[in-house]
Amino acid sequence: MKRSVFNLSKLLLYIGIGICLSPVVLYWIIHGSYERYMKIIEGPFPLSSFGGGPFQLFMYFFLALAGGAFILLSIMQKRK
Length: 80
Known about the structure:
The protein is mainly α. The protein contains 4 helices and no strands.
């Protein structure tokens, strides 16, 4: 049982770190080149909102918050 709890806490930690780093990767993908940026923001609804600052800020904040929650769950799982 201890080994499965340890593996679950490691999995939660890796998912949390990945989600916390995803805004950086997403920003790089969206703003990597001007042509790609224009192609993304001319798309349908969720993609067309990537051009606006408030939507990006909300999305990045939510991803960082979700990643922090996964990391916190990992720490709580490991202490049990």
